[in-house]
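hey so u asked for the seq, here:
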Amino acid sequence: MSGTYDNRDGKIWLDGALVDWREANVHILTHAMHYASSVFEGERAYGGKIFLSRAHSERLHFSAGQLDFEIPFTVDQIEAAKAEVLAANGLSDAYVRAVAWRGAGEDMGVSSRRNPVRLAIAAWGWGNYYGDAKTKGAKLDIARWKRPSPETAPSHAKAAGLYMICTMSKHEAEAKGCSDAMMFDYRGYVAEATGANIFFVKDGEVHTPKPDCFLNGLTRQTVIGMLNDRQIKVHERHIMPEELEGFEQCWLTGTAAEVTPVGQIGSYNFEVGALTRNISDAYEKLVRA
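ran it, structure tokens below
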């Protein structure tokens, strides 16, 4: 499958039925386009099985609730729809995107209680999110935008509106020849990359930012479990910017990113070391088990 994302062969599940890819459209006055009333999930299928599929579907419902709307399909129905999409498109290894949003309806202002909630699921083949960084280590910029306080945005939802500053930060990073950007939070602590959580290694122990104002990713949770199983000490804590100089290794985690080593953040350099490679390889085995 290739081409722009609005012009491909295949099927997309939309509001309960499979439709031709090019026909999966919305009206220009869709509420989500104007007011960001949208939540989504990014998932990966390996060998025809979506890793942590049900957890993703449950989080989609949670995120919708955080934005004060209810998805008109159950978790079981979403699970069945994802399987239907993979089968209809003949996909085994694929990226799966489920998105729910407030559509066009009687309201066209900030309030949209009378508008229908819609749901779509698409899937396509997608390789390494950071290209050859899996072997060389990604190069990250340091973003000028900060993750917001949970008092100003529903920071624990996977909500489309929270990614606006991520897009801006990633564009600025790419313009500098970087793969991505690391973001601080509103207090100045290290937070995450634009679409992935971050881990550091020092003296054989792992340090990762406490997810108290950004998404506690499912891959992040999986990797922490893997480290605990290996009896490697994990410190979930606030990390100050000046600590970056003392860390030896670094990696990113996310459904799209999987486990990707980091070789550089701004002026700080990191080794793509044994622990990073071990966890990356182990994660690859786990998702395909």
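The chain has seven helices and 15 strands. The chain has two domains: 11-124, 133-287.
lmk if thats what u needed
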